[in-house]
Amino acid sequence: MTDNKLLNQFKNIGVAEGISFLALIFIAMPVKYVLEFPLLVKYFGWAHGALFITYIIWLIRARDEYNWSLKQTALGLIAALVPFGPFIFNKQLH
């Protein structure tokens, strides 16, 4: 794999994971509790879960490929747990 291809894939997955997290929090959850329609949480949650797992796998791959420190890897993990975190972490990678 070329040097930048893995990093670009990781960034793209991070953006998708971040968007899915925000959609879950700011769209699906309010619809569930305000409109009493929980089905969106099921689908948005499933998509976010799949993207989260993919993000973690690519984080590990990037750590191995680019010899990231424990600190940088931990920041990548924490970023996935915080709203807007993947976007901030991606900006740090530039």
Word description of this protein:
The protein has 94 residues and is mainly alpha-helical. It has four helices and no strands. The chain has one domain (3-89). Helix 1 runs antiparallel to helix 4, helix 2 (39-66) packs antiparallel against helix 3 (70-81) and helix 3 (70-81) packs antiparallel against helix 4 (85-93). The model has no long low-confidence stretch (mean pLDDT 94).
Give short descriptive properties of this protein.
mainly alpha, 86% helix, elongated
The major β-sheet equals:
none
Shape: elongated
Terminal residue distance: 19 Å
**Count of folded domains:** 1
Helical content (DSSP H or I, runs of 4+): over 70%
Q: Which class do the helix and strand fractions yield?
A: mainly alpha
The overall average pLDDT, rounded, is: 94
